[in-house]
Amino acid sequence: MHMNLHSMFYYSADSVKFDLMITEYILHGIFEAFPVSSSMHSMLFNYAMQNSYVMQNIGIIGILHGITAIVTIVYFHKSIIKLLIDFIKPGHYNFLSWKLCLILLPKLLFGFIYRNANFPFSFYTIIAFGLLLAFYDIYSHQNKKAHEISYMQSIFISFLSLFAFLPGASSLGTYYTAFRACNINRKESLDYAFILNVIPSIGAFVLRFTYVEVNLVRIFTCMFVYLFALILCRKLINYLYLLGIYRVIIGIWVCQNINIQKYFYCAF
């Protein structure tokens, strides 16, 4: 009888741990596909679960980024292939692919240099970038194509994207906000934000991957949830400014209810 109770106890503990981990995979799949900061929601999940094992495991975070990168590559494979062909085509240095490369390089360099850095959460970041997202998405009325951005605008987008290392800013959100600030239409702003986010996600996977216990159920759950959320985000393209307002509300709530100084997030 004692052995049965002992076994039941450990089965229960393992089940709870599994539930927490698969919940984190699902949440990451959802929030990584929207410009709302997956790290912010991971922090809130960590807070709700009272410092759960899941969010303290850097290896799991790396795997989650790798999963979402793979799904994004598959979904946007035609656009990515075209960008790669344009990049290697000689004599065409004004192509969009070169400008996107200029946008990416500083972020990759910064991420590699500060790969072991931990940045504290701040409700100021959550509120500020929520306001920027809402403002530019509402008031940027021009509908320029992405290939119309200048090299100076590429540098501006690159600079703004560096703030994504601050927890709560959102990597996808900073790219989208920067494109909208340059008067790029909503659809291309979002699509290229997803595409640009692939390389940093792969970087996070490579630099943060360690052996952790994973299974196909969790991996495929995250993949399908992320794919569904990505498609949904693109369907709701005209209402993304509401997510900026949502982030402001969450930031104010966090300010009043959570001591976030003890929560840190790895740069990459």
Automatic annotation (TrEMBL):
UniProt keyword terms in alphabetical order: Antibiotic resistance, Cell membrane, Hydrolase, Membrane, Transmembrane, Transmembrane helix
Reaction(s) the record says it catalyses: di-trans,octa-cis-undecaprenyl diphosphate + H2O = di-trans,octa-cis-undecaprenyl phosphate + phosphate + H(+)
Transmembrane segments: 57-76, 96-114, 121-139, 151-178, 190-210, 216-233, 240-260
GO annotation (BP), single: response to antibiotic
GO cellular component: plasma membrane
GO molecular-function terms, A-Z: undecaprenyl-diphosphatase activity
EC number: 3.6.1.27
InterPro entries: UppP (IPR003824)
Main location: membrane
Membrane topology: Multi-pass membrane protein
Top-level taxon: Bacteria
Localization annotation: Cell membrane
Family: Belongs to the UppP family.
Protein name, entry field: Undecaprenyl-diphosphatase
Species annotation: Candidatus Cytomitobacter primus
Organism placement in taxonomy: Bacteria, Pseudomonadati, Pseudomonadota, Alphaproteobacteria, Holosporales
